[in-house]
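Input (structure):
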């Protein structure tokens, strides 16, 4: 039960982190600089946790190096998630983007379990697991207010042109979410410390994000890393204490999943994350967290949450 609650809490923290990072992005005007801040803050917090709880910074790099190269890519998955969101959101709209990510995340998690990819224990796909996944996806659609097909976004914006490429990229975003869970779960088992595994993941994520910023700056100029090409406040000059919450929440997400993935399997953990994400999203909308417009929970959204929980029960118990 504790592992299940941890998986849900990690998903809820992910939604809260997205809200905090959205506010940070308003100041920095860049998703990439927001990510850099999150990784740096998380790294400092993790270092203090290790110093005062484990008092040992030794990491078995030799043992980690004996694994395939993908063992280092948990943090890079985090960078990919941020980048793909930036690319896909304008073309798909918020609700459709979230739904495709949910679909990709659910399917990828079950596929990783079925094939034993990325060091996961093999849990074969069954009719019950497939049925449970379908119920989860239907529930997620209701929570996100998806009722009609086509290019109309629930936000009222019309999306023109071919969106096939962006649908595929959003699905890849979902795969990156599931892959991050599996990779960091395996890294936790190798290192023997979820906190150290999380620190490694955050460090790789920071390096990957900085490399991406350098590549974008060289190819398109420095203004390309900022929203609408308008540079916001500097990383240090614009920092305020509340902004540390983004990095702290990212620790709950990554470390929570690193702990639960070996115990429950990637498929179940990714779906528990979705339940936490959707539930926290409904709560944040209802209370108007961080000044966002209040949106009361509707009957269809509540039914959607019930279906997601029911689908997870089908997958895990049958």
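Output (sequence):
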């Amino acid at each position: 039960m504790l592992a299940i609650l941890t998986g849900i809490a990690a998903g809820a923290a992910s939604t809260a982190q997205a809200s905090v990072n959205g506010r940070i992005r308003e100041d920095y005007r860049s998703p990439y600089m927001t990510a850099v801040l999150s990784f740096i803050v998380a790294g400092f917090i993790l270092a203090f946790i290790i110093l005062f709880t484990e008092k040992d910074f030794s990491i078995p790099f030799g043992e980690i190096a004996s694994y395939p190269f993908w063992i280092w890519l948990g943090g890079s998955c985090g960078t990919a998630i941020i980048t793909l969101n930036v690319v896909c959101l304008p073309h798909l709209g918020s609700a459709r983007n979230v739904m495709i990510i949910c679909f990709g995340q659910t399917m990828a998690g079950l596929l990783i379990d079925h094939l034993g990819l990325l060091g996961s224990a093999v849990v074969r796909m069954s009719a019950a697991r497939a049925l449970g996944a379908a119920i989860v996806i239907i529930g997620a659609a209701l929570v996100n207010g998806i009722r009609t097909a086509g290019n109309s976004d629930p936000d009222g914006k019309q999306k023109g042109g071919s969106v096939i490429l962006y649908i595929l990229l959003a699905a890849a975003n979902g795969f990156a979410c599931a892959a991050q869970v599996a990779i960091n779960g395996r890294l936790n088992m190798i290192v023997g410390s979820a906190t150290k595994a999380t620190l490694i993941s955050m460090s790789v994520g920071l390096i990957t994000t900085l490399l991406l910023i350098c590549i974008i700056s060289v190819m398109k100029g420095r203004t390309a890393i900022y929203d609408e090409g308008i540079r916001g406040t500097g990383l240090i000059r614009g920092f305020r204490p509340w902004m540390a919450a983004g990095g702290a929440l990212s620790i709950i997400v990554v470390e929570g999943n690193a702990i639960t993935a070996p115990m429950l399997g990637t498929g179940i953990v990714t779906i528990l994350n979705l339940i936490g994400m959707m539930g926290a999203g409904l709560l944040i909308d209802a209370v108007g967290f961080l000044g966002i417009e209040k949106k009361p929970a509707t009957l269809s959204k509540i039914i959607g949450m019930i279906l997601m929980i029911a689908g997870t029960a089908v997958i895990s118990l049958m």
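Notes: Confidence is low (pLDDT under 50) at residues 148-152, 154-161. The radius of gyration is 19 Å.
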